[in-house]
Amino acid sequence: MITPDTDEARRLRRGLASALAEKGDLTDPGWRKVFEKVPRHVFVPEFWLGPDRRLTAADVDWLSHVYTDDVLVTQMTEGAATSSSTAPGLMLVMLHALDVTDGARVLEVATGTGYNAALLAARLGSANVTTIEVDPELAKLAEERLNACGYTPTVLTGDGRAGHPAGTPYDRLIATCGFAQLPYAWVEQVRPGGVIVCPLGWGTVRLTVEDGGTASGRFLATPSYFMTVRSNGETGSVPYPGDPQNPDERATHLDPSAPFRDDAFPFLLSLAVPGTAQASDLDDDRRVIGCRLWAADGSWARVEGDSVRQAGPRRLWGEAEAAWRWWEEQGRPGRDRFGLTVDRDGQRVWLDSTDHLLPVAG
User: Which InterPro entries does the annotation name (predicted)?
Assistant: First the structure.
């Protein structure tokens, strides 16, 4: 059932637009007009606030939660979040970075709820927007909701890592799920001079496609944390394996709370120690007292105080210590000083210039 638009929903949209404009996330008049027009609530008829509380249109506080600058988890699979509606402020930062012009042809990877596709269609026209989603049920629901709002972009089901060669060339490509490696197929499918905006690690990168099959650009200053790209039937995240038996143990001079005091280091860690998940352990006063790193290959590390335990084929805390030393030696640079170059040989993360590469473990 499609929830109709109402005066209250329109009022809440205008209020959120004003708040995001004041924050600096909504500066383009064209995007503000679109944001105030497209009803987010149509695309999120239900969502979860934590693992145990599900809100629907029948709940009195549902609409007020919809029009906040919050991520809304819209699908849970075996207790893990597998789809969400991105926080509107971050969504708008990414759309601004996309730097669209009238008539630009856009490929969106990860349709999800369809809300971002609706914003693109409202701004550029439905005929100029193609969106691809790995989950057939999500794609079907998104298309129904888009159509109910009067938007008819091309909605495809498939693995977005392959892009959509039949629709090339695109002027812009935007992804709304997280990647560890930016697919080179995207570079091939966006015209020279075109732009790619993609969450990578714990950041978002904006690349310009160049002649000769290369794309290069910098990370945005805005923090971003996205669900990892998945294949159909997978959660996309690396589940915590539990503490293994008989791990190696040694001392460490790196305080386990240090990596989490500055947002820039977890971002760096996600790029320098790729393929890993990270989490902090808190005491009752929510102070960091330990941290964990783990990877899909069974590598695991847990740090408490000055003691680290590790298991698996990689020594993840050793990799984290090396990344910390490098970051300290560079003067603790922020995320917007980092950049990425992608070509046929792979991807390279750099600091300040393309010849100053980030050492990558693994």
Answer: PCMT, SAM-dependent_MTases_sf
Q: For residues 79 and 235, what is the distance between their CA atoms, to the nearest angstrom? A: 10
Map out the domains of the chain with their CATH numbers.
Answer: 7-219 (3.40.50.150), 248-329 (no CATH)
Dump pLDDT digits (tens) for 41-57: 999 999 888 777 888 99
- CA torsion angle 183 153 206 30 (round to 10): 180
**Pair 97, 199: CB distance under 8 Å:** no
3-class secondary structure, 262? coil
CA distances from 118 to 121, 142, 143 (A): 5, 9, 10
| Residue 15, phi then psi, degrees to nearest 5 | -65, -40
Name the catalytic one among 18, 64, 84, 85: 85
What is the pTM for the complete model shown? 0.92
Above pLDDT 70, what percent of the chain? 94
| Predicted pLDDT of residue 231 | 44
Q: What is the pLDDT of residue 275?
A: 84
What are the φ and ψ backbone dihedral angles of 339, each rounded to 5 degrees?
A: -140, 175
Which DSSP state fits 218?
E
HSE-CB of 222 using CA atoms within 13 angstroms: 23
Per the structure block, which two tokens stand in for 72?
Answer: 């809304």
